[in-house]
Amino acid sequence: MCNRICRYEGRFTRDPFYSQMKLDPGGVCEYYRVTAQHLRMDVHRIPDNMSNAEAITIEPWSCVVGGLKHCNIIPGDTVAVVGAGFMGQGFVHMAPLFGAGKVVALDFSDWRLEKAREFGATHTINPKSEDAVASMRALNNGRLADTVIVIAPFAAAWAQAEALVEVGGTLHLGAPLAPGKNWVRDGNKAYFDEITVTSKYSSDHTDTYSYFRLLEAGRIDAKRAVTNHFDIADSAAAFKMLVEAEKSLKIVVYPHGKPEEL
Hints:
This protein is an alpha/beta fold. Helix content is 36%, strand content 16%. It has a six-stranded parallel beta sheet with strand order 3-2-1-4-5-6, with helices on both faces. Helix 6 (86-94) links the parallel strand 1 and strand 2. The longest helix has 12 residues, at 205-216.
């Protein structure tokens, strides 16, 4: 089970035990095996009033809940989310549950920014067509964001996110860069700005339980995030859509046939 450091600090997903808990043979298949440990610690019975579309969001958006727990949000804070794909929409949607006041979504896609408004963003910025820092100050009374969450896994996006954090704020890394990819910071600015940098890898059982209760309570509009549905026989087309990352958020592959009522 979890070692002393992991247990005391809540870093369950960084314990070597976590990496041993795998599905066999994997997720995109008709059937798979789970371990006895999964059954004891992290299995939830889906209530009758919860749809499959809502239940599909439990694992990924539990990761969002886990990330938000590390974002140091104080009630009323301005929170910016860099990257408005499916995971970014989750951060936009749930940041107010952790106390966020203004929620600002940033993305190069106007379609995704429109979706972010539907998920509760109070403001949107497209860095492709406007100066993101100037726009942030304009909408936030001259200040930058108290917390910036970056989901886009690119060094340029991380640099953009850092530039949007107010002195003393928090920069949360919500997705990793590719292995071996460097992220370079101005050491003088990093020292004097006193910005806290946080990250959270995956979700643990406590995050899952938190999200499940929020979803069950009707606090989360999860069905809106499921934009595309595929039969397992069409998995190749589903993954093509995922890679293209255009007008889609959560793409669902059904192992036993796509429901007719969709």
